[in-house]
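Notes from hallway chat w/ T.B., transcribed later so I don't forget. T.B. wanted the structure written out for a chain they're using in a teaching module, and asked if we could keep both sequence and structure tokens in one place. Agreed to drop them here.
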Amino acid sequence: MKLAILCSKSVEPYVHSVARWISTNLGIEIDILSLDVPTIHFVTFETLRRVLSDLSKDTVVVVPGDLRMDLETLSKELGVKIVRGPKNVGDLPTVLMLLGIEALETEVPPEEKLFRDDSLRNAWIVDYVARLTEIYANGTYLSVDDVRIPLRPPPFAVLHEVTEIDKRSIDEVVEVSRRVCELGIEMLVLGTSFEVDPTKFDVSSYVRKVIDVCGARIGIDTHSVSIARRALEEGASGFLSLRPGFEESLRSFARSKLFVVIPPMFGDVESLLSYVEKLESMGFQNLVLDPLLAPPLYGLGRSIVNYVELMKRNPRFPVMAGLGNVYELMDVDSHGIIATLVAILGEIGVSTYLVSEHSCKAFNATSETIVACAMVSIAMYEGRYPKDMPFSLLLAKPKRIVEGSTRSTGFELCVENACGDASYLPTECPRVCVELGKALRSLEMGSRYPGIYSMNPRTLAKFVAEARRIASNT
């Protein structure tokens, strides 16, 4: 038996790599039927009939699982077996290993079988962890201490900022730091408030304690140059954000620390690039550029254009975006906003994201960003869309409804199948009502009701952290 994979010319190189892996490791002969169409979903019934008419009868034709066409009628007409493969051809090796060729059908994509069996789905996730490991291993990085910032995606780096540490106890800061560090963030940023008194605040104690307890890579975000110096002297690896007036005081760290640089004039790419030239002439080497993402309706669109302009003129340094400027200023669930921003900015070339969980609605934004980065990394690496993976950020609405179900509203199903209470929420969050708390708890723990196939973002983030750990040790 021989397989023939139908694809468009745009993805043919990637399909060849998949076919080679299948032939080498599974011993299956593979032909590739490449069509000159922008995407295989543009192929017509007549074109497909013409292309497949000369195939031998022992060939099994594999088409994308989401191709909208009556394959059964065409298969009977040509006498050639036509089956639906996975929606993404990169999943074909996994499907063949877990299910076998005989599991490929004319009507149902094989992912549906993987989704409905916990053990198969877990094996599928492990396969995706292996793909992420390969992506991390093949990245090009700016490295300072143990901090690795990708020059361009994929992969991505996620930085988490614990805000206003001068208004929190050391124990509270350590507890928050411990929770986010286990997610595999690249750097933990300790941020001070605008009102901090540098003569009274002992930043050194905070830095030492967090490093000691969490083993974290630390950055400092402050408007006080004296606090910045003390933090860097105590072992912090980076500073956010370098601006005119700070460079002379921090020049002694120019070659040993990481510096995020912002424009001297907000939204002005030219001023940012001019300032970078000055910093380089002073010996600053490890720079990450942040042209600043503006809030929605207050320059967000223009700021994205600035990122595009910066990427055209900046081939040497990584670029960062602070996502909280957007999701904290919209009363919209953070995971959808974050995933969209990562996809847009990742396409532009932004490799690094700073997130915080300052408000109740932003809780879990760090793990959501890590999962979004994993999805977009795989999609960019394999030339596909960030969808139809064994994990997702579908937390409130179902993608698949179980047969016989008459309910499709995700929130209602959450309440019906809720478990636990809202005790995981930050203390400042109002409990609103018991049912709402239960629904939120259900979302946090993952989808426990029929038709939703998503794992909670914190668990997924830990899978990503494992991929990063394996890659860094190879």
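Follow-up for T.B.: The CA atoms of residues 407 and 413 lie 7 Å apart. Might be a good example for the class.
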